[in-house]
Design a protein that fits this description.
This protein is globular. The chain has 280 residues and is of the alpha/beta class. It has helices spanning 4-16, 58-61, 66-85, 101-106, 109-120, 133-137, 146-153, 171-174, 184-188, 194-210, 222-230, 247-260; strands at 20-29, 35-46, 50-52, 94-98, 127-132, 156-162, 179-182, 213-216, 235-236. It has an 8-stranded mixed barrel, surrounded by 4 helices. It contains 12 helices and 9 strands. The longest helix has 20 residues, at 66-85. The chain starts with a helix and ends in a 20-residue tail after the last helix. α3 runs parallel beside α5 and α5 runs parallel beside α7.
Length: 280
């Protein structure tokens, strides 16, 4: 396994040399499997080691000063790409972007987001910031201040990995959250574990009660999809619909959907590295 020291030594040069890439994972509506959004996810294409899994470098990168620059770069790249995609995607197509904790500590979140939107021409409603539950609840990150301003601007705010932290029900009223993302750990065992299924159903109930949208992450098979559908989950993402993929592959997926006016089909056959169905 690659050491933390090696990552620190190599990451800054890798960023300057363009080895980082932004991948996109489809988010689809349960009603007809239509792509309604994407989550932007960073990848590192190392010249010797190939495409690195996020777990190999993200924990270290997120603690480095470099992470602030990487955050801004991901936001810029994603907003520019989404501005193009909104010409062929459904009307309310959006991009979800995760933020490193260092960016939240910097105090410049509002200005960074507003500048990225202005440079790309993406309307604020086309962007959704994903902030983990534990980050949002810790006062030292100072996220409570800029979030209302960003919501007033039109940017959506998602509670990521919801259910894994300690947010109380009352705190949902204190933050301008628009979406709850059900953590994949609960979805993975939704068919086998009554406890995990109970958490999923509770989050869906909370969403309806508070007027929040809900999306389930990590959907990998039709049985999981069936349970979510029966209990009123509106949107999902996961390998069943597509793995995180490069921009050109996602662009192909969107344009094929736009031309055919047909929903994304479930990936229950042979798929390539990005979750795309291979041609017969």
């Amino acid at each position: 396994r690659w050491s933390s020291h090696s990552i620190c030594l190599r990451a800054t040069a890798a960023f300057k040399e363009g080895e980082f890439e932004v991948f996109y994972q489809p988010q689809v509506t349960m009603a007809d499997n239509t792509i309604v959004g994407a989550e932007a996810l960073i990848r590192w294409r190392h010249p010797e080691r190939g495409l690195l899994a996020p777990s190999e470098f993200l924990p270290v990168l997120s603690s480095m000063p470099l992470s602030r620059s990487v955050d801004e770069w991901v936001l810029d790249v994603g907003c520019r790409q989404t501005s193009v995609w909104r010409d062929v995607a459904p009307k309310n197509f959006r991009l979800g972007v995760n933020l490193f904790k260092s960016q939240l500590r910097s105090g410049g979140l509002y200005d960074m987001v507003r500048s990225a939107l202005e440079r790309s021409g993406l309307p604020p409603e086309g962007l959704e910031l994903e902030i983990t539950e534990d980050t949002m609840l810790r006062p030292e990150f100072g996220v409570k201040g800029p979030l209302p301003r960003l919501r007033d601007l039109g940017v959506s705010i998602a509670f990521d990995d919801y259910g894994t932290g300690y947010a109380s029900l009352s705190q949902l009223k204190d933050y301008p959250v628009t979406r709850l993302k059900i953590d994949r750990s609960f979805v993975a065992n939704i068919c086998q574990s009554e406890e995990d299924r109970a958490v999923v159903l509770a989050v869906l109930y909370l969403g309806r009660s508070y007027g929040l949208e809900v999306i389930a992450e990590g959907v990998e098979d039709k049985d999981q999809l069936g349970v979510l559908n029966r209990h009123g989950c509106v949107e999902v993402q996961g390998y069943l619909f597509g793995k995180p993929m490069p921009a050109d592959a996602f662009d192909q997926l969107l344009r094929t959907q736009s031309r055919s006016r047909k929903p994304l089909r479930l990936l229950d056959g042979t798929v390539d590295d990005y979750g795309m169905v291979r041609a017969a």
